[in-house]
Amino acid sequence: MQLPRIFAPVRASIQLSSASLIPSSRVLDTFRAANASLTVSFVRHATHQSQGRANGAKDGPGKRLGAKKTGGEYVIPGNIIFRQRGTAWYPGENCEMGRDHCIYATEAGYVRYYRNPLKHPKRQYIGVCFEKHETLPYPPNAARRRRLNMLAVRRDPEPEIGEGQVVVGDLQVGDSTGSETPRNKPSTKLVMGKGYAFREANWEIGRVAEKAGVKVREFVPGDRFRAWRKSKARKEANAERKRLRGASKKPKTKKKR
Amino acid sequence: MASIKPSIRHLNTCLRCVRRSANGNAALNGTSVRLLSSSAAPREEAQVQVQTQPNPMDKWPPLDPALVDNKRDERRLIRKEGIQPIGSRRRRAALRTSPQVPFEQLPYQCFQEARKFLLEDRQEKIKQIETQRLRLNNLLAQDPAVSGGTEAKEARIRSMRNYLNELVIWADINDPLVKKKFEDGEGDMNKPVYRYLADQKWRKYKRLILEQRIYQFNIVPDILPALDPVADVDLAFGRRKVAPGDFVDSLVSESMPRLKVQTFDQGEKLVTVVVVDADVPIPEKNGFTYRCHFIASNIPISPTQTSIPLNQLDQTRKVFQKKAADKNIALPWLPPWANKGAPYHRLAVFVMEQSEAKALDVSAIGKTKRDGFVLRSFMDKLKLTPIGITLFRTKWDENMAGVMQRAGLGDQVTVEFKRKRVEPLPYKRRTERMR
């Protein structure tokens, strides 16, 4: 606040009556006379909004956090064991932490909640051990217990790739019998498109009609009769389509009314 | 010295373009070398009219292999004359610019003063070494009862020896010539200083990476409970060097690798080389086991004798001594192999010191079974201590089928590993009460 400006009239009045001293009881009167325009309000306004969203939601819906599997429960890979905000629990043996810090199993086994002072003195871990009688943590210098989770299968000797077959990566696109559509002809080259799908290039698609021998009547500029017939046919087709659409809609609207 | 170096290098780079033309044909053309001047010399201006058609070969005068310092000249030297440049490029660049004055006569006062100081320090260290030797000899001659029992005496002797070794290193560590020789790779590994410097260099980079790989690939604790590598091991298949943990093509690893084992402590050692595969799948047990791919024993190494070409181990010896007892290879090389679809195999190459450099019985070791080989018990049984390790990985590739056929594993070629389906947990019906 600019105090000097407020007191300027006071100063002026003092200068005026500098010759005669004002008694102390009349000082306030002088002040009032000088400051006819100045209003001094003593109302205190709120500086913080008391209503609405300003104070944040105090009680939202619960997020269903906490243990989803108890200690000793059997889990399979992908089972969520614990949901949490932040890392109250860390993933131990055969467990991983998800995007939202949830702990999930990577192996089938039995859930264990434990601490491992050798790994970290303060953290608490959730692990999965393979046998029911085992406890975690495992001894630090022993070989890790691992599971293969795979099956040995006899594989047929690899089929020989003949001529005229299109192989994209490991995927065989077509057999060379000629039963496929002309688009999948062996001569076409498939490239990785936008959506990570193998597709023909646009210029190749554009040539399809040409290759298939499709004949199109040549466009003659200035042939108004033909243009009129085409536009008429288009308009009729549109009107027909509109009528069909209206027919399916009408009963509904009638019911509402 | 260190503060001088960069400034010299900067000056070098500034003058490089000028120097190239200058050192090339300065002498031949008779033009004077005028560094840091942009105007032509008056003599040159006068000669312009006089000069006849210059010989085009004057542009490319013969190069000195000890002095070429840029890539282009080096290539020209190698291509045209078939001569390899001598020493490092750094050294050649330094030689080119410096008149070859020995250290003692270098005209830098500060440098000479520093050298004097270092020489004094060295004299002091040598004196200390002498007194320490004398003390050690006195202690050795002392009666154990006087020095407080045999154990106390031995402990004192050990600590005194350690201190003596440190003094020997400290005496030479500040010598600029020692530093230069080490950096040029001419250090004599029989001398403690160079061994110490090499050890430091190894620990600063290569060993850190090796430690990381050992940790990342769980070599500890999968194969051994603990490991403290003290020797630098380099693995190469033919000319192909393999960094620790690299994937090696099966065709490349079909033949035996060669090892370079650099030890950093004095004396000759007998070592055993063991190659273990830590990821052999057993589908019946739904787990993994170990397989031994190679064992060779009684291989002598020392700080100067570093090469162990595994493929030449028994071949060279056969010529001189045809005794079966002198063979090195206990278990011949089994090419690393992996089934299609199986997770990658980690193959760890261990260099293990034999206790007290005693030779082992190779034929007895040869009876060890390859499958289910446990290195922990093997080590304990033969009293081996691991001093060096390196590792590589292998997995199914297009050459694997052929390699397996040649190794006599034809029936394994068609076996493929596929992921087992995980059965979902039984669906729990929601009862009325739960709702």
UniProtKB/TrEMBL annotation, chain A:
Subcellular compartments = Mitochondrion
Q: Which UniProt keywords are present, listed alphabetically?
A: Mitochondrion, Ribonucleoprotein, Ribosomal protein
GO annotations of cellular component type: mitochondrial large ribosomal subunit
Signal sequence, renumbered to the chain: none
Recorded hits in SUPFAM superfamilies, A to Z, give: Ribosomal L27 protein-like
Q: Where is the composition biased (Basic residues)?
A: 242-257
- Any one GO MF annotation of this record: structural constituent of ribosome
Q: Where is this region: Disordered?
A: 48-69, 227-257
Question: Which PROSITE patterns does this chain map to?
Answer: RIBOSOMAL_L27
Q: Does the keyword Phosphoprotein apply?
A: no
One GO BP on record is: translation
Source organism superkingdom: Eukaryota
Per the record, the similarity remark reads: Belongs to the bacterial ribosomal protein bL27 family.
Q: Write down what this protein is called.
A: Large ribosomal subunit protein bL27m
Species of provenance = Zopfia rhizophila CBS 207.26
TrEMBL record, chain B:
GO CC terms of this entry: mitochondrion
What the entry lists under CDD domains is as follows:
PEBP_euk
Q: Which InterPro entries match?
A: PEBP (IPR008914), PEBP-like_sf (IPR036610), PEBP_euk (IPR035810)
Alphabetical keyword list = Mitochondrion
Q: Which domain of life is it from?
A: Eukaryota
Pfam families named among the record's database cross-references: PBP (PF01161)
Q: What is its main location?
A: mitochondrion
The protein's location, in the record's own words, is: Mitochondrion
Query: Could you tell me what this protein does?
Result: Component of the mitochondrial ribosome (mitoribosome), a dedicated translation machinery responsible for the synthesis of mitochondrial genome-encoded proteins, including at least some of the essential transmembrane subunits of the mitochondrial respiratory chain. The mitoribosomes are attached to the mitochondrial inner membrane and translation products are cotranslationally integrated into the membrane.
The Swiss-Prot or TrEMBL record describes its family as follows: Belongs to the phosphatidylethanolamine-binding protein family. Mitochondrion-specific ribosomal protein mL38 subfamily.
- The protein in question is named Large ribosomal subunit protein mL38
Give the originating organism: Zopfia rhizophila CBS 207.26
